[in-house]
What we know:
With 120 residues, the chain is of the alpha+beta class. It is built from two helices and two strands; from the N terminus they run H-E-E-H.
Amino acid sequence: MWNNHVRALAARLGKPLPQSALQITTALDENSEGSGGGSSERKDKITAVVNVPQSKYNYTALEPPVIETPQLRDMGEATPPLEWIGLHRERLPNVTHQIVIISLLELAREVDDAYSRILG
């Protein structure tokens, strides 16, 4: 549905849209080596690819970050660690810098350029 929307918007604007930072694709996986005799098993695979903008700056922390682990109310102490969902504590500050800070700096640069063109 998203792809149809993007194609329709690009056709309406008359130009291709810029590539999204997040791409989600689905594919059918036909697997015939199931545990049943000759039965074939169909599985839908969803793949997400995130394009993180690369910075020419290298983030170095002045002191080690303290990232608290949120606990689910129902699970209490049995809440699984953040690494189970793919969040690595040592890479979180660098990724935050690349995604949030660099994007905001690029946005501020674009706004500054627009104002300088308008004001002369």
